[in-house]
Design goal:
eight-stranded mixed sheet, alpha+beta, disordered C terminus, disordered N terminus, binds zinc ion, 352 residues, 20% strand
């Protein structure tokens, strides 16, 4: 009766349009630390065309000026890295909305969900159809009066957004607010990214995937199995991000909300950098993918752009699939918690 698979309503596209326009028109260069600036401009541009450009970040995306530090990459290369602290909240758009208020809420007034298979508007119809979607009659996210069962206090949110979901919060739509984070502040994350990216002998993964140009961390896949097994939906906003108590606002799907500028023919705009220093561009259309010859990590090299990734379609719940380049030794690439996802938050690592 309800077929949500792969459907994103026309209304949702229309509602995203102002955000996209804002994103492409609203950027401006950040003020950079003198040191970072001098290193960025020492003539590497032609030999490393696709390396990180601090000017690409939106105004307000960085919590402080980036600096350049000596670093050792996982292959032993001693080189220089940018140390970048992102603001932890989108510089160019509001956060939310997330859960629908009732079974009659429209897609415009609620967020989205993706589970590796499909991308769904979490509107009233989704709430009514969720038991059928997941083939399990135990699902019921709404009360008999039609209101949706939402984590509407910090306590409820903390109890629901953890691996061992409090049984009391099973069958809830789970969403938090920035005001509920520690001190009511966005979670800033410092990442260390090679100034000049280097292709690795073999691809790798681990830690966060990267940072978006609007100051948001790109986390690993949301732990969908954990979330669904507790009869919860850790809803994302229309930009593919959500909040957890440890990591703050973070991204799991590329929805085009931090794109910068135009793209050459057959390409899509840049919206992020991966932890190995290579740019991440928006998802290619199906026609474009046929032409692009992407590698196992979703990247390819072009004359105009050098090596760069294209984000997976958001429904896949993983913005990229692996790192093609060398990342920093260990998992220092801005990692704050395993998985960085709702349901895997856990305590902060020692020393943070
Ligand atoms: Zn490309
Ligand atoms: Zn998450």
């Amino acid at each position: 009766m309800h077929n949500f698979r792969g459907i994103l309503s026309v209304m949702k596209h229309l509602s995203l349009l102002p955000i996209l326009l804002l994103a492409s028109a609203g950027y401006s260069s950040v003020s950079m630390g003198g040191e970072a600036h001098s290193h960025a401009d020492t003539g590497h541009k032609h030999t490393h065309a696709s390396g990180l450009d601090l000017n690409h970040f939106f105004d307000g995306a960085l919590a402080e000026d980036a600096i350049v530090v000596d670093c050792t990459l996982s292959d032993g290369t001693e080189t220089q890295c940018y140390e970048i602290t992102i603001a932890g909240k989108p510089a160019n758009h509001e956060i939310g909305p997330f859960c629908p208020g009732s079974i009659s809420t429209s897609a415009d007034d609620a967020g989205i969900w993706f589970d590796g298979d499909g991308l769904y508007d979490v509107d009233g119809d989704f709430i009514l159809g969720v038991a059928e979607l997941y083939g399990d009659a135990n699902w019921k996210l709404h009360n008999d009066d039609g209101t949706v069962r939402v984590t509407d206090t910090p306590e409820a949110f903390d109890a629901a957004a953890r691996p061992d979901v409090d049984p009391e919060y099973q069958n809830h739509c789970v969403a938090g607010e920035m005001a509920w984070l520690e001190n009511g502040e966005a979670v800033q994350t410092t990442v260390t990214i090679p100034v000049n990216p280097i292709l690795a002998g073999k691809s790798s993964s681990g830690g966060n995937w990267g940072i978006a140009l609007n100051g948001v961390i790109i986390a690993q896949s949301a732990p969908v199995e954990n979330i669904l097994s507790a009869y919860t939906i850790a809803v994302f906003d229309d930009c593919g991000g959500h909040i957890n108590p440890v990591d703050g606002y973070h991204l799991h799907g590329a929805m085009g909300c931090s794109e910068l500028g135009d793209a050459p023919e057959g390409e899509t705009p840049i919206f992020a950098y991966a932890m190995d220093g290579y740019p991440i561009h928006s998802t290619l259309s199906e026609d474009q993918i046929d032409m692009a010859d992407l590698d196992e990590c979703g990247g390819h090299s072009t004359e105009e752009l050098g090596y760069h990734y294209h984000a997976n379609p958001a429904h896949e719940n993983s913005v990229i699939s692996c790192f093609k380049g060398v990342t920093l030794e260990g998992v220092r690439g801005g990692r704050r918690s395993p998985g960085g996802g709702l349901g895997q938050g856990g305590p902060r690592p020692a020393g943070e």
